[in-house]
Amino acid sequence: MQQRLGQQIILFPLPLQGHLNPMLQLANLLYSKGFSITIVHTEFNSPNPANHPNFTFHAIADGLKGSQASTQDSVVLVSLLNINCFTPFHDWLSELLSSKISDGESITCLITDAIWHFAQGVADRLNIPRLVLKTSSVSSFAGFAAIPLLLEKGYLPKRESLLEEPVPELPPLRVKDLPVIKTHDPEDFYGLMSSVERETNASAGIIWNTFEQLEETSLNKLRQEIGIPIFPVGPLHKFFTASSSRLLAQDLSSISWLNQQATNTVLYVSFGSLATITETEFLEIAWGLANSKQPFLWVVRPGLVCNSEWLEPLPKGFLKMVGGRGKIIKWAPQQEVLAHPAIGGFWTHSGWNSTLESLCEGVPMICFPCIGDQMVNSRYVSHIWKVGVSLEKRLKREEIEREIRRVMVENEGQEMRERIMYWKEKLNSCSRQGGSSYNYLESLAAYISSF
Length: 451
Ligand code: UDX
What we know:
Keywords: Transferase. The protein has helices at 17-32, 74-84, 86-103, 118-126, 138-145, 147-152, 186-201, 216-225, 253-259, 279-292, 318-322, 334-339, 352-361, 373-384, 397-408, 411-430, 436-449; strands spanning 7-12, 36-42, 56-60, 106-113, 130-134, 205-208, 230-232, 266-270, 296-299, 326-329, 343-348, 365-367, 388-390.
C-alpha cells in the first residue's frame, strides 16, 4: 500500500453525474499517490461514501428547496448552488483548517469543479490554493471563453439564418456548434460562464480530463493565453471506472444480453445524464432503431422523455415486434458495455466522458449533441477526428435509419473503425509509464506537494 504523505486534499465535485465521475476518479488517482482525500459534497445528488472507504466525506447544506433540486434547468441549478454553498462551505473549511493544523496533517489544497466559481473567493479568504478540474474538452472551453466576443460579433444569440456559417475566430466551429445552454434567461448563462472563466483564470492551475495529443492545438493555444499551469491527465476513467460514483442503479443484464450478440453488430444508444427529448423525438428514435434492423441496446433514463416517467409513449408491442434484436434499460454499466466486443457503434449525445470512453474502446459514434459543450465535441468527432457522423437535422426515422446503416454496415463505418483505432492506441498509451498523462500526473502530484 502506498504510504500516506500526511497531506490532505479537499475535493469538491459538482453534483451532476458527468462531473462526479471524473472528480472521484481523480480522487482515487491522488489517493494512489499518497495524498489523503476528503470529499465535500452537496446533499443533492450526493455520492455514496460506502463505495469509497478510503476517503472522508462531508456534506454541506445546499439550501435547495422542493423543485429547486432538479436538473431540468442546469444553469438555474448551478447558479443557485454557487450562491447557497458559499457560507456553509466557507465556515466548514475555515473550521477544518484550524483543527487540522493542531492534528498535524496539513491541508494542501482545494480541488473543485471549475463550475464552482464561488470557491475561489473562499480559497482566497482562507489563503489556501485552489486548483480546478475541467470535466469538458479544452476546445469547448475556448468556445465558452469566447462568449463576450461572440455576443459582440453577433454570432450569439444564435440566429436560424446563420447556423451553417463558420466562426472564423473559433475554427472548426460553425455558429450551430457554439456551446450554449438553454435557460429561461440567456443572460444568466452568459453571466455564469463569465464567472467560471474569471475564477478559473484566478486559480492555481487547471486539471483537465483530456490528453495532450487529442487536443494539442487547443491546448497550445490556451497555454499562450493563460498564465497558470495546465495538467491534461485524462482520460481519467482509464485509471478507475465510473461505477462507484453512479447515481442510478446499473442494469447488469445488459452484459449477459450482449454476450449473446455477434461481434461489432450492436448499436449502443445513450444520451447521458442530463439531456431530455420530446415524445415525438422518442418515437422517431424508436422507429429509426426498429427500421434499421440492427441490434440495439438503448438506455432510456427515467426522465429522458419530457412529461413521461419511462417508456409510456412507446407503442404497445414495440419490443415484441423487434424481437430479441433490441433491449431497453434504465442505466448501463457504460464502460463495460463500450468495451464489449458485440458493440459496433455508439449513438451518443456527445458528452465529454462518453466521447472519451468511446474513443478509448475504439467505438465509432453517431453524434446527437443536445446542450453546451456537446455541440463542440460532436464537431470534433465528425469533422476533425472523423470517427463518427453527426445527426444535426431534426430527428426523422428515415435519417436515423440511414445514419445507423452508414456507421454500422457501410464501408464508411469501417473506415471510421480503422481511424478510431489510432486514437484508441494513443489514449491507452498516454496513461502508461512515460505517456503524456502519466507524466502530467507526476508533475501534478509534485506541484501539489510544493504548496
Ligand atoms: C455533461 C456534459 O455534456 C459533459 O461534457 C460534461 O463534461 C459533464 O456534463 P453528461 O450528460 O453527464 O455530461 O454526459 P457524459 O459526460 O457523457 O457523462 C455521463 C457519464 O455517465 C459517463 O461517464 C458514462 O459512462 C456514464 N453513464 C451514462 C453510465 O454509466 N451509464 C449510462 O447508462 C449512461
